[in-house]
Amino acid sequence: MSDDFPEHIKHLIKILPDSPGVYQYYDKDNTLLYVGKAKNLKKRVTSYFTKEHDSGRLRIMVAKINDIKTVKVNNELDALLLENNLIKNLKPRYNINLRDDKTYPWIILKNERFPRLFYTRKQIKDGSEYFGPYASVKLMHTVLDIIRQTYPLRTCSYDLKQENIDKGKFRPCLEFHIGRCKAPCVNKQSEEEYAENISEIRQIIKGNIGFAIRDLKTKMQKAVENLEFEQAEELKNKIEALSNYQSKSTIVHPSITNTDVINLISDDKNSYVHYFQIINGAIINSQTIEIKKKIEETDHDILLFSLVEFRNRFNSKSKEIIVPFAPEIQLPGSEYFVPKIGDKKQLLDLCYKNALFYKQEREKQIALTDPEKHTDRIMNQMMKDLRLKEQPRRIEGFDNSNIQGEYAVSAMPVFIDGKPAKKEYRHFNVKTVEGPDDFATMEEVIYRRYSRVIEEKLPMPQLIVIDGGKGQLGAAVQSLRKLGLMGKVAVIGIAKRLEEIYFPSDPLPLYLDKRSETLKIIQQIRDEAHRFGITHHRNKRSRETFKTELNEIKGISSKTSDTLLLELKSVKNIKEANLEELERIIGKSKATLVYNYFHPAEKNTEEQNTQ
Questions:
Q1: How many distinct structural domains can be found in the chain?
Q2: Predicted TM-score (pTM) of this structure
């Protein structure tokens, strides 16, 4: 351990136990800095003071530690649960920050005789039953509506003690007259019948709609056998209403029951975690949370933290948990499942898409409200992905075009802050290379570009992107070495077939996530280089073709051809021009040559008349 730390810290670490637990770091003002869990408290805490940390924020936190407190627990799971609660309640400065300040609604079955059913955002410990919370208010209202359509329940707040009913204190209200309540307040519905309805409602709220439908079908069959046709009709209507709701809710395979699904996407500063709670093939809860990273939290840490948070929040006891990777700590009574194919894999992918959509929406908001912050985030991500020493604020790309070695050109698009800067685009006509030699072409163009940048003191890019694999990249590197720029400017190559990223000193390519912003920007640069190069190549080829036709005229030089094309824009216009117009541009003698070349019939007629 470093001598930089106070003696009392060294002493505290020496006496830490070799057991699972939770540790808390405090600064000199007794402010809580960080809460963490550990399988072995002594080893985990010691690692903070003996390892070299890449994160500057983590180094600052460790330097501030003035006191360490620990809580021993029985196992890793207890440590995880305690850590989760302490982070949520105490909000330490350097712990991940759950960006979620919403109060979600619950469905409540009130603890009273003839229980009422309604929604609330506050929980009171009075013996009532609470179901939820519901991340989607729309879903909650849908559940309440289907229950109210199917089961007549009271909505009044009367104290329906039997003695009050017997004294005739109440009268049936409008709800009774329109069929939404059976008026237990005047003994028109027994407590047993009402309780039976409440039992079925519990199953529906929990998502067990199939169970409720089966129970109703059994009752309907008995009613038919007893010739109670009105009751049977009423039960049939309930079954149809529940079946209709079930068909709308089931968006996954019906065999997937009592399952939690969780997936996440992360960048340098934030993680976005999406969760599904599935009961009998129906997603009954779906929610995304954003977690702000503070120090060196891994995806494993964040997944575990989020999983415990979601299961507590939605009171989930699901035995199966579908995850993108298996967390290190097993939750009791549950089993992790990492699917590779099939319905469960599709469900995990859907979870990822929801997290990605939430991330993209957040980024759009930031791009509108704080564009500099948005750009800075993208630049930092590119710097990390491409192992750069600085943000690639200016990127220059290169692509070559030719047809069997003819009309060779190269294009250079420029991106500033991740966006095309079209005024900065340049193209090059290849001068020293003969034949289809892409490597030599790249070497020439790179040397010409950056020798000029050095001579004229133009802005130097932070990144050069070469369209091609190791060969083209190697050619570019040769020119950069000649100019003394290797190590001063980063250069990479991108191969088209598998979108491989090549680095000068690494024989193995880098494969970026196909959905990453870094790869998308590099692809856009490559595509712009290709588009810009093809356009220039086409124009040059067209001009050369025109020149070839004009150069076939005896006595007409390339310079004269250029003058005519510049003035009249095309060979077609030159052909259609009269002699006077041509004389005005290139003089009488040359105009006559051109005019006679394109109008041989008139020339022959003139010669015959002379004879």
A1: 5
A2: 0.53
